């Protein structure tokens, strides 16, 4: 067995690890995230033409974007987009749909209850729990300071 010290091994690994192109990654993230947001704005403008109020327009836009994100994850398109765009595909609301559908699809072979249902919120679940929890705490602090 070849004994190699920790520093030499670290140098070896650093030589073999591919160096990311940060400028290219940032441009892809900006373009894809911008296109997703532009598409969301197009949906908003289209839905406004049906005479809905501002809350209904926002809800409809979110529902449509989440549905499309889940659909494109289901057919494998969103994952390919995510590999290319990185954070540009994760930050918009479509990334939320992707974070729910991806684990569910990965574990679908284990059945509906123990696979899909149990793993569906493995990524998004902690975000939701801490989001709700922190909003409740802020609400309580606001209520106490308001008095």
Automatic annotation (TrEMBL):
Top-rank lineage group of the source organism: Bacteria
Keyword Cell membrane: no
Transmembrane segments: 21-44, 56-78, 85-103, 123-145
Key words of the record: Membrane, Transmembrane, Transmembrane helix
One protein family per Pfam: SpoVAC_SpoVAEB
Keyword hit for Electron transport: no
Name of the featured protein: Stage V sporulation protein AC (SpoVAC)
Organism encoding this protein: Caldisalinibacter kiritimatiensis
Lineage: Bacteria, Bacillati, Bacillota, Tissierellia, Tissierellales
């Amino acid at each position: 067995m070849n004994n190699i010290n920790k520093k030499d091994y670290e140098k070896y690994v650093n030589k073999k690890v591919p160096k990311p192109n940060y400028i290219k990654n940032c441009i892809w993230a900006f373009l894809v995230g911008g296109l997703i947001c532009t598409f969301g704005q197009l949906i908003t403008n289209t839905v406004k033409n049906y005479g809905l109020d501002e809350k209904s327009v926002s809800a409809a836009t979110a529902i449509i974007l989440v549905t499309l994100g889940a659909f494109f994850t289901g057919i494998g398109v969103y994952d390919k987009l995510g590999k290319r765009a990185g954070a540009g595909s994760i930050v918009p609301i479509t990334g939320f749909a992707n974070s729910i559908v991806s684990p569910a699809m990965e574990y679908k072979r284990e059945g509906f209850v123990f696979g899909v249902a149990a793993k569906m919120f493995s990524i998004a679940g902690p975000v939701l729990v801490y989001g709700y929890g922190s909003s409740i705490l802020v609400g309580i602090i606001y209520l106490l300071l308001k008095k």
